Amino acid sequence: MQERSERLAQAIAQALKWLRIRDLSTQELARRLADKGYTDTEIAEATDWLRAEGYLSDARLRERLTERYMVEQPSGRLRIEQEFARRGLDAPDLTGDEESRAVRALQMRFGEPPAEWTPRDAARWLRFLLQRGFEPEVAQNALRRWNPRLNDEL
Q1: Between 1.10.10.10, 2.60.40.1080, 1.10.3720.10, 3.40.50.300, what CATH number should domain 2-56 receive?
Q2: Rounded-to-integer distance, Cα 144 and Cα 118, Å
Q3: What is the pTM of this model?
Q4: I need a labelling partner for 147 at 20 to 30 A (CA). Which of 33, 77, 119, 136 fits?
């Protein structure tokens, strides 16, 4: 019994080290603990304790990630769904205007569109949006809204 509680204490201590660095989902934390050799029982008890004490919260993480990908680093549906799935969380409701998010991402990254630009610039802007997880059609429409002079080029 002593050994079991000692292993549980070690699992909790390890989890707290990781959680001090960044928020993790329950699934991510369980995977990391399993990789360290902890049993399913130890992992379940550790995550239950961490949730009860407020150190581990999937709801808090989901809220934080939603804020990041919708406001701080506007991203497309594809990237958001992929990131949430990777962390074992349900994706947020993405009913908002994705095109407006893409325009906001362009404004945050590049500011106002330049008066003069080359096709290479337009390709760079498009790649930026695609890497952020916006679908090609949404990215092209957002580029046209951000820089109306692109209408003939895209």
Answers
A1: 1.10.10.10
A2: 15
A3: 0.82
A4: 77
| pLDDT tens-place string over residues 40-75 | 999 999 999 999 999 999 999 999 999 999 999 999
pLDDT in tens, 123-148: 999 999 999 999 999 999 999 999 98
What distance, in Å, lies between the first and last C-alpha atoms of the chain?
Answer: 68
User: Exposed, middle or buried by CB within 10 Å (0-12, 13-18, 19+), for 132?
Assistant: buried
Exposure class string for 21-50: b at 16+ Cβ within 10 A, else e: eebbbbebbbeebeeeebeeebbebbbebb
Are 92 and 62 contacting, i.e. CB atoms less than 8 angstroms apart?
A: yes
Domain spans in the chain, listed from the N-terminal domain onward:
2-56, 62-154
Q: Contact at 8 Å (CB) between 99 and 145?
A: yes
Residues 64, 74 contacting (CB under 8 angstroms): no
Q: Which of 41, 63, 45 is nearest to 53 (CA)?
A: 45
State how far the Cα of 46 lies from the Cα of 40, in Å rounded to an integer: 10
Helix axes 58-67, 77-87, angle to 10 degrees: 160
